[in-house]
Amino acid sequence: MALELCTEIKKDQNVAEFTVIGGQRRQVRVSLDPARLKAYDASAFQIMDALAKSNYSLPSGAYPSQNREILVDTGDY
User: Fold this and answer.
1) Which of 7, 16, 42, 57 could anchor a disulfide with 76, C-beta 3.0 to 4.6 Å?
2) Per-residue pLDDT averaged across 19-46, rounded?
3) 34-58 per-position pLDDT tens digit
4) Residue 27: which pLDDT band, with cuts at 50, 70 and 90?
5) How many C-beta atoms surround the C-beta of residue 51 within 10 A?
6) Is the pLDDT higher at 50 or at 77?
7) Is 55 helix (H, G, I), strand (E, B) or coil?
8) Shortest CA distance to 7 belongs to which of 76, 77, 75, 65?
9) CA dihedral 51, 53, 54, 58 (to 10 degrees)
10) Residue 47 burial class via C-beta count within 10 angstroms: exposed 0-12, middle 13-18, buried 19 and up
11) Can you tell me whether residue 56 is helix, strand or coil?
12) Are 77 and 56 in contact (CB under 8 A)?
């Protein structure tokens, strides 16, 4: 909820910066299926390496939706 509020507050022309501090960190759990790994000829170490390389965040843009603006960031898991 705080992140949604942050997005709305940032839209105001009189707000220079707004940051949410604290709260629970978001997590992603990855469960590996041995049969699917074998089907893709991949190993758990390859998946770990790919996840480590993709651990960054980039602003990816914004789009309007239902009288709101949705800010999109990618990465940073």
Assistant:
1) 57
2) 83
3) 999 999 999 999 988 888 777 666 6
4) low
5) 12
6) 50
7) coil
8) 65
9) 160
10) middle
11) coil
12) no
